[in-house]
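Chain A, query sequence.
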Amino acid sequence: MSWPPSSPYFFPPHLYWASGPAPPTRRFSPPAANCRCRPEPPVPLCLPRPVTTGRFRPEPRTKIMGGFAMSRSIATAWAQREFYLLRPRECQFELQPGRDDFTVGDIITVKVEPYGAKFKKIGEVEEELEWMIVTQSTPFDGNTGMDLRLIPQFQEGSREEYARELLAKEGFSEADYEFKTVLY
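Chain A, predicted structure.
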């Protein structure tokens, strides 16, 4: 290829405006206040929250669950013991309640699923959250703040016997967990 190229479409950078004045530029000016072409203000990405008067608004709950509830610290300690057995030493770290709740749930779910149970977090506010080995559940039409006497209570059965055996095998005493029925 020889210099300058013979193509009619090639303009060397130093010759862009060498043959005359620079092309005119357009300046942006915002439209006048009475102009109809003025853009509308942007639509917010989320709707504003309704103003509440401090009254409690019940949220619907569609099922009740029964099983063994335990505190976050007990569940985290159980998951930590299993975590040390499952992971190589260089991949281990200290589990903390709240921060590592997904890891705690995943680890203990592996332990309770062979027994036909699930492991879920229960509670309405962060300070009251607990973990539950869910052995029974059924649909229910309820809401938060409901009178506890209106919620049907599950009775312990054969699934709970298996769960108690698992908890005893894992080294828990009966003071570490309790059987209860909760809205979910």
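The first strand starts at residue 60 and ends at 70. The chain has a mean pLDDT of 82.
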